[in-house]
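Long-time lurker, first post. I've been practising inverse folding by hand and with some scripts of my own, and I keep getting stuck on stretches where the structure tokens seem ambiguous. Below is the full token string for one chain I'm working on. Before anyone asks, I'm not after the true native sequence, just a reasonable design that respects the backbone. If someone could post their per-position residues I'd love to compare against what I wrote down in my notebook.
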């Protein structure tokens, strides 16, 4: 990053400021407002951080107008086609694709951290069976901060790396156990002879009663879904992880907070909401009714899986998933999947509609992912848990990047105060 220029601001009352402007490798130029308050006595006001770069990062780049997503400079479409999740995870964490030896070592190291402390199962057992898997994941991941408290110094790069491997390795076990607990089946332990996605499917669907063979086509499709969800720069959950981490808190606590942030329907919870919405629509002929609701300002209904803060074009992840949906459903012999048919028709009608065109609302990553996951036999309540599992790579990479950043400070925004001015305390008997 270079400081190439500056911006002069002048305003009423003789306000003058000269602020540096930075150029990143790609993307819009960034005005550095750190000295704004010192120079003018003013803060910036940006609810939802629509115009604020909260950090410098070299991990993921999004060109929302062009519909481009890069992990460490590589196009998401290319990674989805040519890479696999653990290789992509290595790339996201370390900045370069691994060579053969690095790849094998990374796979080995992740695989050999997949087991959970035996005591962790009692945390699951404390929950009601109908607990949402995301609630369990928040609790269990947060609890890992207790299991790995004494031996974790967040200032030590080696400790940080161990935490990173543990977190990525244990997430599939935690997510699969959340599911097993909800259906009253025994927990299935991880198997070191299986790949990352394979192992997750095995822990989800195997029982101790008989041998369970993972369909390689499904494992590949799930691995691709993991790649597509692995990172997405400074979204709500990643910003949450950074904010929690900026206080020096345990990374397990930061990831638990990230999972909580991801859960909402405006973020990762949208994949579950899309499938529920498609269920509610039910038939193609009811699409206009739901589109009309989505456009009605007085109706809180939104087209789930549509629109994005950054993409003002087709989300490239949605494009890969749309194609993947066709392939997976064909492999599973579900050529006529009613939900996929409704989703495609909904997309077609919405993209031709003036309301969606004007606002540049396109399908996002969540629009097609749920249909694939459902076809694979994964229950709706697990969709966001799967998103969290994959995003853990991005969260850990962003946390590590933040911990190394010499400009890193505790995250502490200011506010535009609109409450009462200072006033004297009113005794009870004098209150109206
Ligand atoms: N359906 C109908 N109208 C919409 C939608 C939608 N899905 N999304 C945005 N709009 C309208 C919105 O009403 C507003 O219209 P107007 O200018 O007339 O007031 C305009 O488009 C801009 O919307 P916004 O809420 O200001 O945009 P935002 O950047 O704050 O919100 C979003 C982005 C993703 C929260 C929003 O598009 C949304 O709620 N989408 C549905 C939920 C969803 O699919 N979320 C997943 C996002 S991608 C994966 C992830 O982040 O995890």
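-- Answer (accepted) --
I ran through it position by position. Result:
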């Amino acid at each position: 990053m270079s400081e190439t220029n500056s911006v002069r601001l002048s305003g009423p009352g003789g306000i003058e400021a000269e602020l540096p402007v930075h150029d990143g490798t790609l993307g819009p130029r960034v005005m550095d407002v750190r000295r704004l308050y010192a120079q003018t006595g003013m803060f910036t006001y940006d609810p939802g951080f629509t115009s604020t770069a909260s950090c410098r990062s070299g991990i993921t780049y999004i060109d929302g107008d062009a519909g481009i997503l890069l992990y460490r400079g590589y196009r998401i479409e290319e990674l989805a086609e040519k890479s696999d999740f653990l290789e992509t995870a290595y790339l996201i964490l370390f900045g370069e694709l691994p060579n053969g030896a690095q790849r094998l070592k990374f796979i080995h190291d992740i695989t050999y951290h997949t087991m959970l402390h035996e005591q962790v199962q009692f945390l699951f057992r404390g929950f009601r069976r109908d607990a949402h898997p995301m609630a369990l994941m928040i609790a269990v991941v947060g609890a890992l901060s207790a299991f790995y408290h004494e031996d974790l110094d967040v200032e030590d790069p080696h400790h940080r790396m161990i935490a990173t491997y543990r977190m990525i390795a244990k997430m599939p076990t935690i997510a699969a156990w959340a599911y097993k607990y909800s259906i009253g089946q025994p927990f299935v332990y991880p198997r070191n002879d299986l790949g990352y996605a394979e192992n997750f499917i095995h822990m989800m669907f195997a029982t101790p009663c008989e041998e369970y063979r993972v369909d390689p086509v499904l494992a590949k499709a799930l691995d691709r879904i993991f790649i597509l969800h692995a990172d997405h720069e400074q979204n709500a959950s990643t910003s949450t992880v950074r904010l929690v981490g900026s206080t020096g808190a345990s990374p397990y606590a930061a990831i638990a907070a990230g999972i909580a942030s991801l859960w909402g329907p405006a973020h990762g919870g949208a994949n579950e909401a899309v499938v529920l919405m498609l269920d509610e629509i039910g038939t193609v002929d009811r699409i206009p009714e739901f589109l009309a609701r989505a456009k009605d300002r007085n109706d809180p209904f939104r087209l789930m899986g549509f629109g994005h803060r950054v993409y003002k074009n087709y989300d490239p992840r949605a494009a890969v998933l749309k194609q993947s949906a066709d392939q997976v459903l064909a492999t599973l012999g579900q050529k006529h999947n009613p939900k996929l048919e409704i989703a495609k028709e909904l997309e077609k009608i919405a993209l031709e509609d003036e309301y969606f065109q004007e606002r540049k609302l396109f399908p996002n990553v969540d629009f097609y992912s749920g249909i694939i996951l459902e076809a694979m036999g994964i229950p709706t309540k697990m969709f966001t848990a799967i998103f969290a599992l994959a995003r853990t790579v991005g969260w850990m990479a962003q946390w590590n990047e933040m911990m190394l950043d010499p400009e890193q400070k505790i995250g502490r925004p200011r506010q535009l105060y609109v409450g009462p001015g200072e006033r004297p305390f009113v005794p009870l008997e004098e209150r109206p």
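A couple of notes from the structure itself: The longest helix spans residues 157-182. Strands lie at 2-11, 15-23, 30-31, 60-63, 68-71, 74-75. Happy to go over any region you disagree with.
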